């Protein structure tokens, strides 16, 4: 699958998540910790990408090594308005493609003003 196809598929998936959050009464403009997951082929790749993300302050990245394999968890405190989350999600898709990882999506807890 090409990067453009991954970006288009990702945008559809991102909008599905936004619809789910909207159904929970989310206020998209409120900042919250958003969790992005990049699956890595091995420990070394996970650690390399986590180091790059942290060094350039794209987010707070942690390499994970467990029974599910190797991955990188990236946490960014941000709002999830459509233009913002699709841009960051797209960036993670591109970063994963460049380094041979698989972007496995994002998630967060719905935020409300109450």
UniProtKB/TrEMBL annotation:
User: Which stretches make up the Regulator of ribonuclease activity B domain?
Assistant: 14-108
Q: Which domain of life is it from?
A: Bacteria
The protein depicted here goes by the name: Ribonuclease E inhibitor RraB
């Amino acid at each position: 699958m090409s990067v453009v196809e991954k970006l288009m598929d990702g945008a559809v998936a991102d909008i599905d998540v936004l619809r789910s959050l909207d159904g929970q009464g989310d206020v998209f403009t409120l900042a919250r910790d958003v969790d992005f997951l990049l699956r890595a082929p091995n420990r070394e790749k996970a650690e390399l990408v986590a180091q790059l993300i942290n060094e350039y302050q794209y987010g707070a990245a942690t390499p994970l090594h467990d029974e599910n394999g190797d991955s990188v968890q990236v946490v960014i405190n941000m709002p999830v308005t459509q233009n913002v989350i699709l841009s960051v999600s797209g960036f993670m898709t591109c970063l994963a493609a460049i380094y041979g990882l698989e972007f496995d999506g994002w998630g967060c807890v719905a935020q409300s003003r109450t």
